[in-house]
Amino acid sequence: MHVSNQYCTPGGVIDGSVEHPFCTISAAVAVAQPGQTVLVRPGSYPETVAVTRSGTAEAPITVRGVNGPDGYVRVGKYNTDIPVEGTILAMDGVHDVRVEGFRLLGARGADVVTVAGSSRVTLDGLSVDQGSSAAGIRITGPAQDLTVSRTLVDIGNLPGLTVEPGVVDLTVTASQFVGQGIAATDAPGLTLTGNTFFSVCREAIAVAGASPGASIKNNAVQDAVISGSLCAGRLLSISAESVPGTEVDYNIIDPRGGRAPYRWAGVDHPDLASFQQATGLAGHDLAADPQIRWASNSYGRPYLQLSITSPARDSADDTARGASDRDLLGNPHADDPTQPNTGTGTGFRDRGAVELQDGNPHVAATLRPKGGGSPLDVVAAVTVPTSWPTDGTRGRVAFRFPSRGLWRVGDAPSAEYTYRRAGQVCADIRVSYDDFRNPYSHGDGIRCTILGSRYTSMSPIRLLDTRGAVGTPTTTSVPANGEVVLDVPRIQEVPAADITAVVLNLTVTKPTASGFLRIYPDGTNLPDVSSVNFVAGETVPNLVTVPMSNGRLRIRHTGSGTAHIVADLQGFYAASGSGFRPVAPARVLDTRQGGSIAFPANTSRTLDLTGRIPAGATAVVLNTTVTKPTASGVLKVFPYGTPVPTASNLNFVAGQTIPNLVVAQVVNGRVTVHNASLGSTHVVVDLSGWYGEGATDLFVPTPLQRIYDTRGTDGFGGPMDPWAQVAVGPWVLRTDWTPPRTTALVANLTVTAPTASGVLIAGPNGSPVPQASNVNFVARETAANHMVTQVGTDARVVVRNSSTGRSHVIIDQAGYFIAEY
């Protein structure tokens, strides 16, 4: 569940989701269930929080302040006129609860945190302060198996942690106390390990009553002398009833305050040597200045750190009971090569709550496709180089993927995410060595990669026909410079947000003047491309591949007259579906050759592609051309064995030669071609690729854009000469690593102002010109056709002007294919 007083909507929908978070922490914890985590986003929350619900040992409730690059979470009396009275965080009679990462600011005269009658409760990563409170943290029995870890308590001269009778097996580790430290009474099994005490002439540790079996190890105690005066009292005091089973060792205690550092069973010991001789304990304690100082630039979440010459370095007991895996800042333990290792275990754990580290090294962050599952899965990772050996990855890591700016913050150096669409995807990756206390101390930044998508072929579905009010409320034609908005909320139960791109057969019919259509995603700028070119009275189809944005597509009629528009859905790209395998264009049908005859009127033929495509193929990409028709009509290409569909692929008139790219489903390696006409016609089909089992290439959408245009001052050397050819590579999206190999270009290929009839032929650069065609044209005609063309070894396609005249050529890119990662 999520909490954000910045992004919530008071009085609106509030369900704890990322989109509709709770406004207060109290509202979220009031409904939290076992196993749930309440994530509180940065900001100030002027409230008191009472945790009354419990988890289970296997499924605890976690309430976490998500401190990160955007700031930290403040709860309580912080720069506010809103009345905040009483205990800021209270837990009474609960079990299996974790509270993490909050800065808690106390109200006047009240404890900041109270835990009563509870078990298996952890307070981790808190900052507890405000000088007018009664106590920082108060724990009251009966209670057991409690932990206070990686927490700083600064309540001035008041007790930082008060432990009242009846608390059993309390662990305090990797925490810091400023002023008066810990006072525990009748608390058997107490563990105080790896903490820092900045005593300011107050008792650091006082264990009273019957608290046997305590373990006090790896602590660093600095006796802050005020104006040169000596301090009264003791730094560490253990009552007689608490002596049995209690261990004291590997601490460093500052002797400069002039007071007895130890009081044991009512007897003061003026120095370490006398304590060791009297008790036989503290054999590895140090009597020295631990050289503790306040860190700079901690921005509201202060902490104490060791100096680079502190004797506390590399000298702690690595096996001490309750020793934390990470320090107060979330860092591992590091081996200072200039300091001998005198501790146990690894030997290089420091005493106190904050481990000395090797500067702030530069971070190497990456974002890569995960591979092996969905093509939209990624892994973001960081590498933190360090010249000092460590027992873990250094730093706290924050990953932000596109989900309302929510940071994932933790110790793990990597995170996985599944994007909803292919293309260029980016993540913000940051590492902090102070648990994001200093917002300017972390790196690395934005990392991007390229993801591809798979194709789902389908029987054509008519989404738009302005003649019959399909997809529009009326039968009115589209006026000059008018637009039609086409809603595509979902396809085959796949929501629009999960669709990368759609493949449509777009047809213009009954135009009253010349012009062209442009189809593009809603919410984006009108692209400088063309999708279908036409002249008055002509019916022209063209296949288009269009990226999706918000579930709507816009079709702009750029012309001086009116026109009707038809759109038939052929398939779509998404996470699931089939990969693609491009091939060099190959002619698979030509009714003009080899004794074949033209298609008679209103007849169908089966095109058998077995032997050219594998048995697992689900769809094929065919450049289909009608030539020498004796009457007007349409050509339809559809799955073998299925009824003739309503949708068409190619419209033609008598005597015309016209191509269109078709992506058709195959059944048992076959498709059906149907001539819906009163006359006969010749048909030419060229295969340029297939989808299905064994095909692994993935489609990457790009913003619709012009990548080649021989016209105008920015043209590529003027019109193409007769029989000339040019090599063109796709515009490739930026990535922060070596991108996968480009395998095919998806684009609209247009010829304009040709001086003679001819054809444009596209194929892989560096290979022989294929015996195929992409765009057929006559003199002074503008003609276009979609192409999916394999690239050569240099990642370029070659386009040849197969004509005796000169021609201008335009290429508008919609995307490209990449090899599987």
Low-pLDDT stretches are: none
Number of strands: 63
Largest β sheet strand count, sense and barrel closure: 18 strands, mixed
Distance between the ends: 34 Å
Output the number of helix runs.
Answer: 2
Structural class: mainly beta
CA gyration radius, whole angstroms: 37 Å
Mean pLDDT score: 93
Portion in beta strands: 35-45%
Shape: elongated
- Assign a percent range to the helix content: under 10%
Write out key terms for the chains shown.
mainly beta, 2 helices, 821 residues
Quick take:
With 821 residues, the protein is mainly β.
Q: Mind explaining what this structure looks like?
A:
The chain is mainly β. The chain is 2% helix and 45% strand. It has 2 helices and 63 strands. The chain has an 18-stranded mixed β-sheet that branches. A 10-stranded parallel β-sheet has the order 1-2-5-8-11-14-16-18-21-24. β40 (490-491) and β41 form a beta hairpin. The two termini are 34 Å apart.
